[in-house]
Write a structure and sequence with these properties.
OB fold (Dihydrolipoamide Acetyltransferase, E2P), Dihydrolipoamide Transferase, 3 domains, 11 helices, globular, Biotin_lipoyl, acyltransferase
Amino acid sequence: MAIVVNMPRLSDTMEEGTVAAWLKKVGDKIEEGDILAEIETDKATMEFESFNEGTLLHIGVQEGETTKVDELLAIIGDEGEDISGILNGAGASTEEAKEEKADEVVTPSAVESEETQTESAEFPEGVIVVTMPRLSDTMEEGTVATWLKKVGDTVEEGDILAEIETDKATMEFESFQSGTLLEIGLQEGESAKVDALLAIIGPAGTDVSGVASNFSATSAPAKKEEAPKVKAEAPKAAPAKTETKSKAPSPTPVTENGRLYVSPLAKKLAEEKGINLTKVQGSGEKGRIIKRDIENYEPAAGAASVGKFVPSGQEDFDEVPNSQMRKAIAKSLTKSKFSAPHYYLAVEYDMDNAIAFRTQFNSIPDTKISFNDMVVKACALALKQHPQVNSQWFDDKMRLNNHVHIGVAVAVPDGLVVPVVRFANEQNLPQIGAEVKELAGKARNKKLTPDEMSGSTFTVSNLGMFGIDYFTSIINQPNSAILSVGAIVQKPVVKNGEIVVGNTMKLTLACDHRTVDGATGAQFLQTLKGYIENPVTMLV
């Protein structure tokens, strides 16, 4: 059966898109996961992936042409299939095609695939099964952070159904169907694999008691065990998403079925302030803990202020479920550490000139750069001279990158993200400083897009601001190297045969021996030394 592929919404502000390039032509075989085209949005040019298999029967928008979101882009079906009926009815709108099982593609901005919201002939008429969407290129499972709709609510196309926590960010999940929310398959705090049952939408009053069991039995049998479905009319206890105490009496917050109700913002503030949410009385709807409850919270008089043991001597601990980001970090860094043969080169640079240079540079009105900005710029220039360090390892090839995209590691409450400063060698110091500041802010607010976290060719990790003078890092694969930057330390040094007070900084380069030999890494550090110890050369 032919499937209509519409122009997807690839960003939260996208209203129309332009086809920059087609990667497939009419008559080509399409496999699930193939890149159909490159779509230019209002923010970036992104690859558009197919979530269906078949033959590309029709291209509705040629290269360079622009069309509105949800307008006909292409048709995929069986080879030789007659699609004249679809084309004749698709001139002004693709609504009829949508009713005949339109293709809705998962993208980082929550545009869904046919598998994400699908209407089946086996289900009651008009019933739509909504499954866990793939909201990032590396997402394997998601956690429901918050439901914005409840069972019985009317849902319009474009309404936000829920906030979904992925391995990279918490993102709003938009409905592309209209109807009544008949059932919720995952409660707040529960996780499930991509394509597992998330919710059911359909006409009000429709009996969907058999839909969930039918879906899980035929479409995703393993997912039922990983994320038990909780029916709205007979809810079961769901695991609390927030941390809970095993001992020590505390005020009883308003809960339902063992789950604590808290807004994402309140949870974030509580984590920052170190407040145990089980001790906070919520003032929101149904006792939900909201922002003002955290801001106005005062610990009970006589509460223990230090230590993890209560006076009775009972053992006490907190258990916090691993977030999607923490799981992704564990998986990727474990793979890197045990697959790439790491070795480390440590150096110590004289920072006296760098300190003087930064002081003079920041004396310019409306200008402020950091030492980290200087390191990023110096690395970018040095990498252009040592492309082997700017390389990437793949199983069948080595890629020597001519462009320099530097990832800057940023600590966030759930772990670590690496936004990317693109073409860093072509940017001046204030530009790098502004971009790093903007990306770091987005990272801490979980607003980074997948595009802003992909494509790095080298990484800088700086713990100097935390007083760490020396450390090593794990390579961010497929890159070949990562630079660890320590604190600037004042110490006795020898200059011109005399012991004087100097300022030094230790850096450690972790290299993948498959691509970067020891001599190559050492030569890169010598070039880097020239830029950092004489930063005026970065302006030439």
